[in-house]
């Protein structure tokens, strides 16, 4: 059985392999890494949702779990945030988190990007420095029983 903790652990591990990208889980420190000019370097923050169970047959206990994962790509410049998106997308989209062809019990469990068309935004919640961000959303389904 796959859990939300296992899923976010796997996603963070995959993203950590991207050279030049810092990965945070759930929160970003007040002073993330900076470049030589003092701008915030590209980073991502991963947020996991609680998901939802789905029943494939009326009256039976739920067998399938659908989990959302948000990955916010940020940087001190708009290009830096877009660079992060360009690095994250090929690493996560379509990756199989758990199941293998030899062990299909955990369902497909491939991450699918479900991001709606979102615009690059300035993060105005941080008064100390300029940051730009682009949220991405992924979802995967897996069997829980």
Automatic annotation (TrEMBL):
<protein>
    <recommendedName>
        <fullName>DUF3168 domain-containing protein</fullName>
    </recommendedName>
</protein>
């Amino acid at each position: 059985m796959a859990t939300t903790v296992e899923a976010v652990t796997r996603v963070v591990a995959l993203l950590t392999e991207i050279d030049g990208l810092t990965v945070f889980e759930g929160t970003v420190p007040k002073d993330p890494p900076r470049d030589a000019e003092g701008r915030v370097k590209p980073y991502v923050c991963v947020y996991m949702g609680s998901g939802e169970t789905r029943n494939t047959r009326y009256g039976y206990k739920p067998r399938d779990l659908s989990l959302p994962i948000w990955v916010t790509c940020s940087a001190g410049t708009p290009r830096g945030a877009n660079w992060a998106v360009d690095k994250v997308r090929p690493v996560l989209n379509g990756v199989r988190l758990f199941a293998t062809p030899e062990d299909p019990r955990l369902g497909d469990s491939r991450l699918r990007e479900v991001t709606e068309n979102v615009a690059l935004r300035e993060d105005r919640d941080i008064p100390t420095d300029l940051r730009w961000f682009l949220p991405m959303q992924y979802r995967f389904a897996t069997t829980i029983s």
